[in-house]
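__Protein archive entry__

___
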Amino acid sequence: LDELDKALEDLNRALQIDPNHIHSLHKRAEIYRMTKKYEDALVDLNKIIDIYPDPCYIGLRGNIYRFLGRYEEALKDLNDVLKLDPKNRFALTMRGRLYGVLDKYEDALDDINELLKVIPDDIWGLTTRGDVYRRQWKMDDALKDLNKALKIDPNHTFALRIRGMVYYSLKNHKKAIIDLDKSLRTENDYEFKIKMLKIYHQMGLYL
């Protein structure tokens, strides 16, 4: 966090000199996203898009809207990106994740399958599809995707989280704990940590 604070100070200084510097605004928006200051990220991205409405930045704004629970606005941005670039990797992944949250599982799978046709080993695509299968209670399919994702990156926090939740649903508590513990070591999502403590309690573990 200290490094991010220092980077933020540097970017603030740069933007005092040139308030419309797109690269600095983008970097600051990314730091705000990483530190969950989504409203601040949105301000910077809106400013960028006013200056330079590139699909890359519109997609990033759509993702921030998703984090804020502003799903209609998120969907509009991601749809706009995919109209211009139907194979956009980021927009397909984020719209797939958004459809999953909205319980539109077939739409989610359409997006993620389209992505995985082009990039079969895309770790976010595999993890997102695994999560959609989990929500559909297709646990074998979920594990197949999540195992493949974790073979590519054994420390991928989101893949560990989702596979841990699959194992928990299957009452394989031993494997669930291994994945969830590993995920929690690098997880900055406080709400997720509280949710995991409740799950641990339900499994008879008092931490």
